[in-house]
Amino acid sequence: xxxxxxxxxxxxxSVTDAGRSREDDAQLGLxxxxxxxxxxxxxxxxxxxxFINRGISGNRVRDxxxxxxxxxxxxxxxxxxxxxxxxxxxxxxxxxxxxSPEQYEEDYRWILTQTQERTAAQIILLEPFVLPYPPDRIxxxxxxxxxxxxxxxxxxxxxxRLIPLDGLFAEASARRExxxxxPDGVHPSPAGHALIAQVxxxxxxx
Length: 206
Fold this sequence. Notes:
alpha/beta; Rossmann fold; 10 helices
Protein backbone atom coordinates (compact mmCIF):
# COMPACT_ATOMS: atom_id res chain seq x y z
CA UNK A 1 0.00 0.00 0.00
CA UNK A 2 2.93 2.33 0.60
CA UNK A 3 4.21 4.62 -2.15
CA UNK A 4 6.42 7.69 -2.49
CA UNK A 5 5.21 10.69 -0.47
CA UNK A 6 1.98 8.95 0.50
CA UNK A 7 -0.28 10.87 2.90
CA UNK A 8 -1.49 8.55 5.64
CA UNK A 9 -4.43 9.91 7.64
CA UNK A 10 -5.56 8.47 10.99
CA UNK A 11 -9.19 9.22 11.89
CA UNK A 12 -11.20 8.42 14.98
CA UNK A 13 -11.88 9.27 18.60
CA SER A 14 -9.73 9.43 21.75
CA VAL A 15 -8.02 6.11 21.01
CA THR A 16 -6.62 7.73 17.87
CA ASP A 17 -6.30 11.25 19.32
CA ALA A 18 -4.06 10.10 22.21
CA GLY A 19 -3.13 13.67 23.12
CA ARG A 20 -2.14 14.88 19.66
CA SER A 21 -1.37 18.55 19.03
CA ARG A 22 -4.05 20.71 17.42
CA GLU A 23 -1.41 23.22 16.26
CA ASP A 24 1.38 21.00 14.93
CA ASP A 25 0.64 18.08 12.61
CA ALA A 26 4.06 16.64 13.38
CA GLN A 27 2.94 15.96 16.96
CA LEU A 28 0.84 12.83 16.52
CA GLY A 29 0.12 12.14 20.18
CA LEU A 30 1.26 9.22 22.30
CA UNK A 31 -0.76 6.42 20.73
CA UNK A 32 -0.66 4.07 17.77
CA UNK A 33 -0.42 6.81 15.08
CA UNK A 34 2.91 7.92 16.54
CA UNK A 35 4.19 4.35 16.68
CA UNK A 36 3.12 3.64 13.10
CA UNK A 37 4.70 6.86 11.90
CA UNK A 38 7.97 6.27 13.76
CA UNK A 39 8.42 2.67 12.68
CA UNK A 40 7.42 3.15 9.04
CA UNK A 41 9.57 6.27 8.74
CA UNK A 42 12.53 4.32 10.08
CA UNK A 43 11.86 1.36 7.77
CA UNK A 44 11.14 3.38 4.61
CA UNK A 45 12.91 6.76 4.94
CA UNK A 46 13.30 7.00 1.17
CA UNK A 47 9.53 7.12 0.65
CA UNK A 48 9.02 10.47 2.40
CA UNK A 49 5.75 9.32 3.98
CA UNK A 50 3.51 11.98 5.54
CA PHE A 51 1.39 11.16 8.58
CA ILE A 52 -1.60 13.16 9.84
CA ASN A 53 -3.67 12.45 12.95
CA ARG A 54 -7.18 13.91 13.06
CA GLY A 55 -8.61 11.83 15.89
CA ILE A 56 -10.72 13.84 18.35
CA SER A 57 -11.48 12.62 21.84
CA GLY A 58 -15.17 12.00 22.49
CA ASN A 59 -16.18 11.82 18.83
CA ARG A 60 -18.97 9.62 17.62
CA VAL A 61 -19.56 8.71 14.00
CA ARG A 62 -21.96 11.68 13.67
CA ASP A 63 -19.12 14.01 14.73
CA UNK A 64 -16.79 12.43 12.19
CA UNK A 65 -19.40 13.02 9.51
CA UNK A 66 -19.79 16.68 10.48
CA UNK A 67 -16.08 17.42 10.06
CA UNK A 68 -15.31 15.01 7.22
CA UNK A 69 -14.81 17.58 4.48
CA UNK A 70 -12.23 19.60 6.41
CA UNK A 71 -10.55 16.75 8.26
CA UNK A 72 -10.42 14.19 5.48
CA UNK A 73 -11.55 15.11 1.99
CA UNK A 74 -9.59 18.36 1.81
CA UNK A 75 -6.44 16.56 3.00
CA UNK A 76 -6.60 14.15 0.03
CA UNK A 77 -5.11 11.15 1.83
CA UNK A 78 -3.60 8.26 -0.07
CA UNK A 79 -4.28 5.92 2.84
CA UNK A 80 -7.04 6.42 5.41
CA UNK A 81 -7.58 4.51 8.64
CA UNK A 82 -10.82 4.88 10.62
CA UNK A 83 -11.47 3.73 14.18
CA UNK A 84 -14.84 5.00 15.45
CA UNK A 85 -17.72 3.61 17.46
CA UNK A 86 -16.89 3.17 21.14
CA UNK A 87 -18.41 6.55 22.06
CA UNK A 88 -21.54 5.68 20.08
CA UNK A 89 -21.80 2.81 22.57
CA UNK A 90 -20.54 4.59 25.71
CA UNK A 91 -22.99 7.49 25.56
CA UNK A 92 -25.85 5.03 25.98
CA UNK A 93 -24.49 4.07 29.37
CA UNK A 94 -23.16 7.34 30.79
CA UNK A 95 -25.60 9.86 29.30
CA UNK A 96 -28.59 7.80 28.16
CA UNK A 97 -27.89 9.08 24.64
CA UNK A 98 -27.70 5.98 22.45
CA UNK A 99 -26.78 5.64 18.80
CA SER A 100 -28.75 2.89 17.11
CA PRO A 101 -26.97 0.47 14.78
CA GLU A 102 -29.04 1.91 11.95
CA GLN A 103 -27.91 5.48 12.70
CA TYR A 104 -24.34 4.32 13.06
CA GLU A 105 -24.47 2.53 9.71
CA GLU A 106 -26.13 5.46 7.93
CA ASP A 107 -23.47 7.96 9.01
CA TYR A 108 -20.58 5.54 8.48
CA ARG A 109 -21.90 4.69 5.02
CA TRP A 110 -22.05 8.41 4.14
CA ILE A 111 -18.42 8.82 5.23
CA LEU A 112 -17.24 5.92 3.10
CA THR A 113 -19.32 6.95 0.10
CA GLN A 114 -17.95 10.50 0.18
CA THR A 115 -14.42 9.24 0.58
CA GLN A 116 -14.58 6.86 -2.34
CA GLU A 117 -16.35 9.37 -4.59
CA ARG A 118 -14.02 12.28 -3.84
CA THR A 119 -10.63 10.73 -3.12
CA ALA A 120 -8.50 7.83 -4.31
CA ALA A 121 -7.65 6.80 -0.75
CA GLN A 122 -7.10 3.20 0.18
CA ILE A 123 -9.23 2.66 3.27
CA ILE A 124 -8.57 0.55 6.34
CA LEU A 125 -11.41 0.12 8.83
CA LEU A 126 -10.55 -0.80 12.41
CA GLU A 127 -13.26 -2.37 14.54
CA PRO A 128 -14.27 -0.55 17.71
CA PHE A 129 -13.55 -2.70 20.75
CA VAL A 130 -14.17 -3.00 24.47
CA LEU A 131 -12.41 -5.22 26.98
CA PRO A 132 -14.19 -6.82 29.97
CA TYR A 133 -12.64 -4.53 32.60
CA PRO A 134 -14.01 -3.04 34.76
CA PRO A 135 -16.83 -5.58 34.96
CA ASP A 136 -19.55 -3.14 33.90
CA ARG A 137 -18.00 -3.12 30.42
CA ILE A 138 -19.33 -6.64 29.88
CA UNK A 139 -22.87 -5.25 29.54
CA UNK A 140 -21.67 -2.98 26.71
CA UNK A 141 -21.41 -5.97 24.39
CA UNK A 142 -25.15 -5.74 23.77
CA UNK A 143 -24.69 -2.31 22.22
CA UNK A 144 -21.22 -2.60 20.68
CA UNK A 145 -21.49 -5.99 18.99
CA UNK A 146 -24.09 -4.85 16.41
CA UNK A 147 -21.87 -1.87 15.58
CA UNK A 148 -18.90 -4.17 15.05
CA UNK A 149 -21.05 -6.16 12.65
CA UNK A 150 -21.86 -2.92 10.80
CA UNK A 151 -18.15 -2.19 10.33
CA UNK A 152 -17.57 -5.71 8.97
CA UNK A 153 -20.56 -5.36 6.63
CA UNK A 154 -19.34 -2.00 5.32
CA UNK A 155 -15.82 -3.34 4.82
CA UNK A 156 -17.26 -6.05 2.58
CA UNK A 157 -19.58 -3.70 0.74
CA UNK A 158 -17.02 -0.96 0.09
CA UNK A 159 -14.17 -3.45 -0.43
CA UNK A 160 -11.94 -1.84 2.19
CA ARG A 161 -9.32 -3.48 4.37
CA LEU A 162 -10.51 -4.55 7.83
CA ILE A 163 -8.56 -4.96 11.05
CA PRO A 164 -10.61 -6.99 13.58
CA LEU A 165 -9.41 -5.16 16.69
CA ASP A 166 -12.14 -6.49 18.95
CA GLY A 167 -11.10 -10.04 18.23
CA LEU A 168 -7.40 -9.21 18.45
CA PHE A 169 -7.81 -7.64 21.89
CA ALA A 170 -9.89 -10.60 23.03
CA GLU A 171 -7.10 -12.92 21.90
CA ALA A 172 -4.49 -10.75 23.62
CA SER A 173 -6.55 -10.80 26.83
CA ALA A 174 -6.21 -14.58 26.91
CA ARG A 175 -2.44 -14.08 27.18
CA ARG A 176 -2.49 -11.26 29.74
CA GLU A 177 -5.28 -9.71 31.83
CA UNK A 178 -7.53 -7.23 29.97
CA UNK A 179 -6.47 -4.22 32.03
CA UNK A 180 -2.89 -4.75 30.87
CA UNK A 181 -4.06 -3.83 27.36
CA UNK A 182 -6.64 -1.17 28.30
CA PRO A 183 -6.85 -0.06 31.95
CA ASP A 184 -10.46 1.15 31.57
CA GLY A 185 -11.46 -1.36 28.92
CA VAL A 186 -11.47 1.35 26.23
CA HIS A 187 -8.28 3.40 26.15
CA PRO A 188 -5.22 1.31 25.33
CA SER A 189 -2.15 1.13 27.51
CA PRO A 190 1.23 1.60 25.80
CA ALA A 191 1.17 -2.14 25.11
CA GLY A 192 -2.36 -1.85 23.71
CA HIS A 193 -1.34 0.93 21.38
CA ALA A 194 1.66 -1.13 20.29
CA LEU A 195 -0.66 -4.04 19.51
CA ILE A 196 -2.75 -1.81 17.24
CA ALA A 197 0.38 -0.41 15.61
CA GLN A 198 1.78 -3.88 14.91
CA VAL A 199 -1.30 -5.10 13.07
CA UNK A 200 -1.76 -1.82 11.22
CA UNK A 201 1.85 -1.81 10.02
CA UNK A 202 1.47 -5.36 8.74
CA UNK A 203 -1.60 -4.24 6.79
CA UNK A 204 0.16 -1.18 5.39
CA UNK A 205 3.15 -3.23 4.31
CA UNK A 206 1.00 -5.93 2.75
